[in-house]
Specification:
Blueprint lengths: L2 E7 L13 E5 L6 E3 L5 H5 L9 E3 L5 H4 L2 H10 L8 E5 L3 H9 L13 E5 L6 E3 L2 E7 L7 E6 L5 E4 L7 H6 L5 E5 L16 H11 L4 E4 L7 H11 L4 E3 L5 E4 L3 E3 L1
Parallel strand pairs: 3-4, 4-5, 5-6, 10-11, 11-12, 12-13
Antiparallel strand pairs: 1-2, 1-14, 2-3, 7-8, 8-9, 9-10, 14-15
Amino acid sequence: MNVRITVLGCSGSVVGPDSPASGYLLTAPDTPPLVLDFGGGVLGALQRHADPNSVHVLLSHLHADHCLDMPGLFVWRRYHPTPAPERGVIYGPASTWERLGAASSPEGGEIDDCTDIFELRHWRDGQPVEIGSLSVEPRLVAHPCESYGMRITDRSGGTLVYSGDSGYCDALIDLARDADVFLCEASWTHSPSRPPRLHLSGTEAGRIAARAGVSELLLTHIPPWTSREDVISEAKAEFDGPVQAVVCNESFDVGRSSRRG
């Protein structure tokens, strides 16, 4: 699988002291650069790795920590001295235009019309879309708003699965089945007081990885107030394959279990 994922941001729920919120750059042959989620600080991090005028964006859901650097990308594509060669594409939930257009508009109660710079395409649960050499299958997962995990497969069958934000659910286990790399959120330690069906604990992330038979587990979306070490330890207790928590600017060659960056 000639796919590389670069961590632009991995702090859970809020921007952290060492990382933007959620955002991941995916590159593959014959495919435009794809950014999975676009939370606070991601636009700045993206500039180190790719031209923002060239990217398409895949939004898992519309909580602020996964989408609210998009208005900055709108400014970049509208006003950069070198125009984008073509409109970008945004894939996202049903209310994506309303959410991003309201954030981008300079006036309250108005929706910025962003169709001059982006085409919007809505996810449909379980219906794959083809983007260059990749197939992306979105699946609804357990979260308070419309939220999708993504199964990304190249022409050789190599697979990366991104959980998005999700509580423990069968849909996520099915989505991750036999994946080469599972990029999975783990926002909590496994305390009984954690909110249900909102985020995963390290224990649950490891349990899903084991039940799905993935080859490698990459933990992400760990908030600044959660112990990374505890989350990693919990996941390792459930899953006997490679486990690590990602950091900003780290890159992985998917399918080869090799880290670069």
